[in-house]
Design a protein that fits this description.
single chain, mainly alpha, 12 helices, about 65% helix, globular
């Protein structure tokens, strides 16, 4: 069952977001970005953490408390479990294979493998961002991290093979059909931005257009919403009761840090938005993977 404090909730109105991109950061914030990517074993900063970085006191206290958590064996194991749940649940929607259509468009095996490799990056990396978003909202809204999971650091590689910096198709790079696709993504997902995953996959425009138009009807279904609600509830149970908290990160400290940067309600709305959207993003990437199997 969902935590009583944290029903899955899309803020209304959607809060203004001010993500701090990697190319603009320096000093302590740049060091935090580098440490976070190294700990999560991902090649990009998620929009969620870049949005948190707009609030420097909040971001500093959050990362100081979270760094030993995300480096722990327990955190990695829970990310893997959430990914497995999402990929199994996505199959309930019976996504059709895109391989015949893509081969008909001329996609060679190496190109399909490159798309799969990129999907693997997001399949791995979205889980820790989902857990982080859930922890932030839990603490901002009166919950605590009360688990006693394994505090031992994870040793070795748990992320995919490094792919270098991601190549993103930004809206100002794109032609009119891709910009229209981005607008449809925002309308369908009810979001004010296009996630990194989609901008990265749009470097293959004919693939991504085909994939999105097959995916979009699922997003509007009750079965899809049930999968997202199940992921929301499962992650919340895990972060509340199964993760370690070796640095003693407490809700009161994080709320005080947030209030030093902005009205607390503003941070709560931002946290609610990301904790609402990430189960859908995880489900969508699982569906995109299934389309290529």
């Amino acid at each position: 069952m969902p935590h009583p404090l944290l029903q899955r909730l899309l803020p209304d109105p959607i809060p203004a977001l001010h993500p701090l991109p990697e190319y603009l950061v320096e000093g302590e914030c740049a060091a935090t970005y580098a440490a976070m990517k190294q700990a999560l074993q991902v090649p990009w900063m998620g929009v969620v953490t870049m949005a948190y970085a707009h609030y420097p006191t909040f971001f500093r206290v959050l990362w100081q408390g979270l760094e030993p958590v995300v480096r722990s064996r327990a955190f990695v194991e829970h990310c893997r479990a959430v990914r497995a749940q999402a990929e199994q649940a996505a199959l309930r929607l019976h996504p059709a294979s895109l391989l015949p259509a893509l081969r008909g468009l001329g996609y060679a095996p190496r190109e399909l493998d490159a798309i799969r490799e990129l999907l693997e990056v997001f399949s791995h990396g979205n889980q820790p961002y989902l857990l982080i978003a859930s922890i932030a909202r839990l603490l901002l809204e009166g919950g605590e991290l009360d688990g006693t999971g394994d505090v031992a650091p994870f040793q070795g590689q748990h992320g995919p093979r490094p792919v270098g910096a991601l190549v993103l198709m930004e809206a100002h790079h794109a032609d009119a059909p891709t910009r229209a696709l981005y607008a449809d993504i925002q309308r369908t997902l009810r979001l004010p931005f296009v996630n990194t995953d989609y901008r990265a996959l749009a470097r293959w425009p004919s693939y991504f257009s085909t994939a999105w138009h097959q995916l979009a009807p699922h997003v509007r279904s009750d079965a899809y919403r049930q999968i997202c609600d199940e992921l929301h509830a499962e992650v919340l149970q895990r972060v509340t009761h199964a993760l370690p908290n070796p640095a003693g990160l407490r809700g009161e400290a994080l709320r005080q840090a947030a209030a030093a940067d902005a009205p607390l309600d503003e941070l709560v709305a931002v946290a609610r938005l990301f904790q609402w959207l990430l189960p859908g993003l995880v489900t969508n990437v699982a569906l995109l993977r299934a389309q290529l199997t």
